[in-house]
Amino acid sequence: MKQLSSLVFIFLFIGCNSQADITDNLTAPETFAFQILDHNGENVFSNNTLDPKKITVKNLDSNDLVKHHFVSDNNLNIIVLENVGRESDNINYSVNVGDKSIFELHVDAILVKKGLDFEYKNIAITNTTFKRDKTSGVYNVLASLD
Question: Which residue, 19, 21, 34, 62, has fewest beta-carbon neighbours within 10 Å?
Fold first, then answer.
């Protein structure tokens, strides 16, 4: 019995990591979803004006590509960025289709330690006109197709 309790104590001691990062236990940051519309209000991917395979998201500070998802289920056709603010507190992204920048996303993400959650300040979408759907949370972005 003494050996068993010693073994349990050793596993507990090894399992407790005093150097764990506080961000390991955070809830995930907000997901940003974008529907790209033409001047008629039609989704540019649904009407085949733009090719979703040519979407890239670029970090304007580092020039690195940013992971994104294109959701085409049920003809939704939206661009999704997850974990915005998880790695950095200042986000400066360019969303592109082919060699054309459709819009830029700028976000100040702040870790709120009291609730172990993220808070977003100064969310800005530039180089376009947009409106956020309050029900779905999707940003409807007007694409300049000139």
Answer: 19
